[in-house]
Every structure is written in C-alpha cells, then in structure tokens.
Design a protein that fits this description.
275 residues, alpha/beta, 47% helix, histone binding, Leu-rich_rpt, Acidic leucine-rich nuclear phosphoprotein 32 family member A, repeat, AN32
Length: 275
Amino acid sequence: MEMEKRIQLERRGRKESEIAELNLDNCRSQQIEGLSEAYCNLESLSIINVGLTTLKGFPKLPNLRKLELSDNRISSGLNNLSGCPNLTHLSLSGNKIKDFEPLEALKDLPNLKSLDLFNCEVTNADEYREKVFELLSNLKYLDGYDQDDQEAEDDEEEDGVDEDFDGEDGEENEEGEDDGGDDDEEEEEAGAEDDDDDDDDDEEDVDDEEEDEEEDEGSNLQLLNQSGDLEDEEDDEDFNADGAEEDEEEAGEEEEEDDDDQRGTKRKHEDEEDS
C-alpha cells in the first residue's frame, strides 16, 4: 500500500490536527508522501520498513517527540528533520549510514536524548560511541546505553527520557499535581473525621456494655436475694412442722399418763370395795 493511502486509512476520518500518533510501518514508498504540516499535533510517528531512500519533503512537526525510521535505506539528508525541534527519540537502525558526517545535522535537534544506529555501518568505526557522544553533547542514550554503558529503562528509551518541556504541557502537569495534592489533603481530613466518629462509637459501645454488665449484676443479686428468702421460708416451714409434731407427741404422752392415772385410781377403789 502506498504511504498516502495508508495515512488516509490511519486517520479514520479525523482531522489532521487531531492526530497525535501515526503508524505507517510496512507501507511502500521511497520518499515522504501525504504527510504535511497540518499534522501539527503529531507526537509519535513510525515509518519502519517502508523503503525510504530520502527524507526530502519531511514536514515541520513542532510537537513530534518520537520518530521511528528503522530498516529503510536512508544514507543522508538528516537535516530535513530540523523542523522537529522537540524530537527526543530517533531510531535509524538498519539504515545505510556509513560514517559520522550525516550525523552532524542532528546537532540542530537540541532535545534529542536517545539515538539508535544499531545495524548501521557507522557502528563499526573506531571509537564509535565516544565520537557520537562528543558530536551530540545533549545525547543521553546511544543504542540503548548511556556513556557508562548503563542500559536505558524502557520508559526512558521509548519516551525520550520523558522530560517535560516549557509550555502548555508542563503547566497542565503542574496543575494536575496541585489538584492531586488538594484531593489527597481532603481525603486525609475525611479519613481523620471518620476515625474520630469511629472512636466516639467505640466509646459509646463501651459505655453501653458497662451499663449492661451493671444491670446483669443487679439482676443476679436480686435473684440471689430471692433465692435466700425462699430458703429461709422453707427452713421456717420445716421448723414449724417439726415443732407441731413434737407438740402432738407430748400431748399424746400426757393423755396416756392421765389414762394410766385414772386406771390406777379406779383399781384402788375396786380393791377397797372388795376388802
């Protein structure tokens, strides 16, 4: 598919100024076609394995930060990228760059932090890394490593070290941070109020438990007193019953004694009469 047709397909009916990311990988074209300065808000552009031999006609894209040009046939003409001053990440791996001269044009990109020249013939030159870092003083990563051979983190390599530039993006980030700080403070205050409410509820629960315990103790004491009264009444009843039985026995004994006395007296009279 030709590059211009591929661009129209990727747009999906959107305006050029609404496009922030564009992927044109594997379409076929030897030069830039269908891409214009109307894509003024484009931030990421990928043109991998397209067959480009030149960058002539590359538009000015002031917001472009990431440009992928790997596996093409570019050997020079990097000065055509000068209209992208905010470019931070540039991949030229697998192209036809043979020496350091074409790289001189990249000095016009003051924000370039990451450059990939892997599988380019220039990487075989003596002191290749030292010379590139010396040529491009702002460069932080070359082929994924810094000057101390420390590998770049994925997010830094992909986002061009992910630095904010002066302008609307930076202001929006600062405002977002401030808003986030205010939200955090409000959440902390709300959490503190909830904790206070929870403490009050806990204290009320403790008071209620103490009152319940006191009521239970009072009820138990009342039950004990009632039980004691019942036992006393039972003891009195037992005592009264025992006393009644003893009285009855004594009365019976007295009656028997009276009977015996009467019998004795009667016999005495009978004996006297006989005599």
